[in-house]
């Protein structure tokens, strides 16, 4: 059975995209995904693969940690 650690990844894709004056479609084309992928990622309903996270960071010329933030859950067992 898969254990749920409660961890999550938040992102600032929306903020970076708006500052760059890009539509969701334009960003999607630049990083090789669909507009829907950008949409659900901005809403926090999709955690991108590492490859996509690095593509997005590279596109905006920032470190991946500037856009994506790991948030540890409240799991009672230390792993």
TrEMBL record:
<dbReference type="Pfam" id="PF01381">
    <property type="entry name" value="HTH_3"/>
</dbReference>
<keyword id="KW-0238">DNA-binding</keyword>
<protein>
    <submittedName>
        <fullName>Helix-turn-helix domain-containing protein</fullName>
    </submittedName>
</protein>
<dbReference type="InterPro" id="IPR001387">
    <property type="entry name" value="Cro/C1-type_HTH"/>
</dbReference>
<dbReference type="GO" id="GO:0003677">
    <property type="term" value="F:DNA binding"/>
</dbReference>
<feature type="domain" description="HTH cro/C1-type">
    <location>
        <begin position="13"/>
        <end position="67"/>
    </location>
</feature>
<dbReference type="InterPro" id="IPR010982">
    <property type="entry name" value="Lambda_DNA-bd_dom_sf"/>
</dbReference>
């Amino acid at each position: 059975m898969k254990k749920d650690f409660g961890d999550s990844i938040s992102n600032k894709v929306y903020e970076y995209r708006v500052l760059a004056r890009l539509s969701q479609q334009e960003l999607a084309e630049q990083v090789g995904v669909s507009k829907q992928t950008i949409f659900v990622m901005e809403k926090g309903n999709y955690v991108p693969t590492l490859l996509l996270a690095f593509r997005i960071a590279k596109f905006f010329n920032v470190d991946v940690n500037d856009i994506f933030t790991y948030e540890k859950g409240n799991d009672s067992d230390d792993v």
